[in-house]
Design goal:
The complex is a heterodimer of chains A (590) and B (90).
Chain A (H helix, E strand, L loop, with lengths): L7 H7 L5 H28 L1 H12 E6 L6 E2 L5 E13 L8 H11 L3 H8 L7 E7 L1 H10 L4 E10 L7 H4 L11 H5 L1 H4 L4 E7 L5 E4 L12 E2 L4 H17 L4 E8 L5 E7 L12 H4 L2 H4 L9 H10 L8 E3 L5 E2 L2 E2 L8 E3 H6 L3 H9 L3 H10 L26 H8 L8 H7 L1 H4 L3 E2 L15 E2 L3 H14 L17 E11 L2 E15 L6 E8 L8 H19 L12 E5 L17
Parallel strand pairs in A: 2-8
Antiparallel strand pairs in A: 1-6, 2-3, 3-4, 3-5, 6-7, 9-10, 9-19, 11-14, 12-13, 15-16, 17-18, 18-19
Helix pairs in contact in A: 2-3, 4-5, 4-6, 10-21, 13-15, 13-16, 13-20, 15-17
Chain B lengths: L1 H56 L2 H10 L12 E5 L4
């Protein structure tokens, strides 16, 4: 207390007249606040670093999904059949959505819908967001982006297009909105076609440029491309001719299958009715069915060549063996009938004139097991193995359950059922000198294939010659011609089953044939379901479709004609031999 | 001793600058690489769209109609076809 203020009065004024407890409280509070703040700072900086670090990273670090897209599907020459391409679609987020009256009117105009309809669309109260229009055209996208309206977003997504449209629809199939294959090849090869999205963890600067990767990149895996065995030109021909025939004969439906006889590749497969895979707004599952692969029918007379092959193979008959074909031939109680009876026919003539009696008589010389064995060997009652989703094995009952009458009717194609693809494949046994190649929807190299021997080459050729007689004078298919080429084939006209019994006025007309007959390259199977304009024979309904498609396809493949007796003029020319000019010799070796 | 320290300090500074320079160049290249990748993606998409366009124009149905209607093309009748056989050809 030695300190003495100079001016005691002034110091009196400055003197704090506070109770010590007040000082202590304020001081304590301030100190407490300081401790709290530093403790928090220490906690954030020292103990719980992740939190702020996370906030900072959120600004500069980004996880990017690397987009991928579904692989392309093309035909054997690389023509596109399905492709995924990015399109913009318009989305709205209702919480943020604020459109001025002018923007609203403009948006309606850009989208080409009346403003009221747009209001109705945008009035949807959903959490999150919803699609207003998917997809929008590129021009619309530019216009919408220029408006910059809050709550409207353009989002880029991949859409699947099918340039060939309905022509290849049944084979290629289609995908759903989630890019999952639903039908056809799109479904069968889903795992190959689909891509896998990649991921990147990156650091960004404030301009949004990527500075560096923070973690190894998981690269996106693009979907694999697929080259089908289809030849788009032949496919189009098949589609066009089938559609024309369906229209002319007022039929319910039909199918065409074109096979490469040497490789088993499916060069074309067309069905009617059709659907448009690019616009499935009128969804009708019935139209999407690939009838040639999925539907079965009773083959009728097209089975007869197998009966002939079976009896020739066992040496029971020769092609010129004569068989009595009386019109009162009975098996059990069943009377077998021919539309055009002949007292006697050779084996060749039985095929040529498609005699039910002759075929039944030949089949009765075999045991059920022997007959079944031949039908089973050519693939009846078995999956054709094309890998197509939903393919059917048809129906061929085990021989132990056959009654004699069934063995007889099976000889002319009743009592068993097949798909068109299966039947056309079976004819490969005749076309390819007894060897059946495995079917394929995918293009493949000839050396990859090993076939399965079904008949000896001699039997196969003998039956082929019989089938050639079908299309010649006196045959059931004598109206079927392909100028310049020899053709071999078999007609079929089968009654359809309606309510458990055969309908007398509903038919399935079919024709399966091959050309050039001297060394077949193509097999074409045609079936027309319920032609209803009065004409129903396989030769006059299915035959012309065969002839048109075959003629044009042989021309497309530039196969040399093997029927010189027709009107086609053959000129033989010495090729102009041009000596190869050596432009540059590389390495000197030759 | 102190002179050596000064020299080393200088070298250190130079090295630091070089690191900065290298880092900067690396970032520039990286940005460039990103840009080119983006461009490649865009070109790839454009290629797809052009393929789509091409196949739409070359659609057999369209070619068929145009050939018949506009160009008046028909399939040749058999007696107007000459088959040239090359002697000695397989």
């Amino acid at each position: 207390m030695s300190y003495q203020p100079r001016n005691a009065r002034a110091h009196q004024l400055l003197k704090l007249n506070l109770a010590p407890w007040r000082m202590a409280t304020v001081g304590g509070l301030l100190l407490g606040g300081l401790v709290l703040v530093s403790a928090r700072a220490f906690y954030l900086q020292g103990l719980n670093t992740d939190y702020l670090q996370g906030k900072g990273d959120a600004v500069s670090n980004r996880n990017l999904t690397l987009p991928t897209h579904r692989g392309q599907v093309s035909d054997r020459h690389g023509q596109l059949l399905a492709i995924s391409t990015p399109v913009e679609s318009l989305w709205a987020r209702p919480i943020e959505l604020k459109l001025s009256a002018e923007q609203h009117a403009r948006l309606a105009k850009v989208l080409g819908i009346p403003p009221q309809e747009l209001s109705k669309k945008l009035a949807r109260k959903t959490r999150g967001e919803f699609a207003v229009r998917r997809p929008v055209t590129p021009e619309q996208a530019v216009n919408i982006a220029a408006m910059g309206a809050p709550g409207l977003y353009l989002r880029r997504e991949f859409r699947r297009y099918y340039p060939a449209g309905e022509v290849t629809a049944h084979v290629v199939g289609f995908t759903n909105v989630d890019d999952l294959g639903q039908e056809g090849v799109e479904r069968a090869y889903q795992s190959w076609l689909v891509g896998r999205e990649g991921e990147r963890h990156i650091l960004r600067d404030r301009h949004g440029n990527t500075i560096r990767d923070l973690a190894p990149i998981k690269t996106a895996q693009m979907g694999g491309n697929l080259a089908l065995a289809l030849d788009l030109k032949i496919q189009y021909l098949a589609h066009r001719e089938l559609a024309a025939a369906i229209a002319t004969h007022k039929a319910k439906g039909g199918s065409v299958v074109v096979l490469d006889a040497k490789t088993g590749e499916i060069l074309a497969l067309a069905n009617q009715p059709i659907f448009n895979p690019n616009n499935r707004s009128n969804y009708q599952p019935g139209l999407m069915r690939n009838r040639a692969v999925i539907d079965t029918f009773e083959p009728g007379s097209t089975v007869k060549p197998f009966v002939a092959a079976a009896v020739l193979e066992r040496g029971l008959f020769r092609p010129d063996s004569v068989i009595q074909t009386p019109d009162n031939f009975r098996v059990g109680t069943k009377l077998v009938r021919d539309d055009h009876p002949h007292p006697q026919l050779t084996v060749t003539e039985i095929i040529q004139k498609s005699s039910n009696i002759g075929a039944a008589k030949m089949a009765m010389t075999l045991t059920p097991q022997q007959f079944w064995d031949v039908l089973h060997r050519v693939g009846l009652g078995q999956l054709p193995g094309s890998g197509f989703p939903g393919e059917t094995a048809g129906l061929l009952r085990p021989p132990g359950t056959w009654r004699p009458v069934e063995q007889a009717t099976m000889a002319y194609g009743y009592g068993l059922s097949v798909s068109l693809l299966q039947m056309t494949r079976a004819y490969m046994a005749f076309a390819n000198d007894g060897e059946v190649m495995p079917l394929s929807f995918l293009r493949r190299e000839p050396q990859e294939i090993t076939g399965e021997r079904v008949f000896s080459p001699i039997v196969a050729r003998e039956v082929r010659t019989m089938m050639e007689a079908v299309t010649q004078e006196g045959g059931t298919g004598q109206s079927i011609h392909v100028p310049g080429y020899r053709i071999a084939g078999k007609t079929g006209t089968a009654h359809k089953v309606l309510n458990g019994s055969y309908a007398s006025d509903r038919y399935l007309s079919s024709f399966i044939g091959m050309a050039p007959a001297s060394n077949p390259r193509l097999i074409i199977g045609v079936v027309i379901d319920e032609p209803s304009d009065g004409v129903y024979y396989g030769s006059s309904v299915a035959g012309p479709v065969f002839a048109q498609v075959m003629g044009a396809s042989l021309r497309l493949l530039a196969l040399p004609p093997d029927a010189p007796e027709t009107a086609t003029r053959m000129t033989q020319s010495t090729p102009t031999v041009v000596a190869p000019t050596v432009v540059a010799r590389i390495g000197g070796g030759m | 001793m102190s002179r050596l320290n000064v020299v080393l300090a200088l070298v250190l500074v130079l090295c630091a600058l070089a690191v900065i320079q290298a880092q900067h160049r690396a970032r520039n290249y990286f940005v460039e690489l990103e840009r080119l990748k983006k461009e490649a993606r865009a070109l790839d998409e454009q290629w797809g769209q052009l393929q789509l366009e091409q196949s739409t124009w070359a659609n057999p149905a369209r070619v068929d109609t145009l050939a018949r209607a506009q160009l008046g093309l028909v399939a040749p009748v058999p007696d107007r076809i000459h088959v040239e056989t090359l002697v000695g050809a397989p």
